[in-house]
Design goal:
Elements (H helix, E strand, L loop, with lengths): L5 H15 L11 H13 L6 H10 L6 H9 L3 H10 L13 H13 L4 H15 L7 H20 L5 H36 L1
């Protein structure tokens, strides 16, 4: 009968337990703030008591080289996933809303599109103007840029769409009106002719 050493059996059990209780994919997102606080304490000796302090501490870091790889290791996620989750989702809660400024930005963007300003320059001008007018507010720039990009593309496509000359447009409208007037009369005439033909057969 084959015998197993106590140490090898223990190692096998540990591996089995670790496998069973391994964190599920994306579970790291629920504790992302805690992971960031761990990163700040381990690498920068910064104590962040809350998620808000962790966010501010992370944003204040000047040299971010290798930062997301280290945070990914702490989270149990890839460098890209940790980076994208922070910028696209987690950080939004600490940003100010720009909903109240959408009408103003849309009008400014429309003028730039009409003047033929390219997309990159137009977006930079609108975002820069918003930041200058509201220096104390922290807007989520990724969401803001996505909104303006979509608006710019829609406005540019509408401006480049071929427009019919005014005379041609009015002529087409006139034809449509005449068709609406003629069709009922034509239908009545055809019906009268049909009744007349039926009367001949009776």
């Amino acid at each position: 009968m084959k015998q197993y050493s106590t140490s090898s059996t223990t190692n096998c059990l540990c591996r089995s337990v670790n496998k069973i209780y391994a964190p599920l994919p994306f579970m790291w997102k629920d504790d992302f703030g805690r992971h960031l606080r761990t990163f700040l304490e381990q690498t920068h000796r910064l104590h962040a008591a809350t998620d808000t302090e962790a966010y501010r501490g992370l944003v204040a870091i000047q040299n971010k080289h290798g930062m997301w790889g280290r945070i990914g290791d702490i989270c149990g996620a890839s460098e890209k996933n940790a980076h994208d989750f922070f910028h696209n989702t987690w950080s939004k809660r600490f940003c100010d809303s720009f909903e109240a400024h959408k009408a103003q930005m849309t009008e400014q963007l429309r003028r730039l599109v009409q003047e033929g300003v390219d997309k990159s320059e137009a977006l930079t001008a609108v975002i820069g103007g918003l930041q200058q007018e509201h220096p104390g507010q922290n807007f989520h720039l990724i969401s803001l840029r996505q909104l303006l990009t979509h608006s710019y593309d829609r406005m540019a496509a509408r401006q480049q769409a071929p427009r019919q000359p005014r005379v041609q447009r009015e002529r087409r409208q006139e034809v449509q009106i005449r068709q609406k007037q003629v069709l009922p009369r034509q239908w009545n005439m055809d019906t009268d002719d049909l009744i007349a033909e039926l009367a001949k057969l009776l």
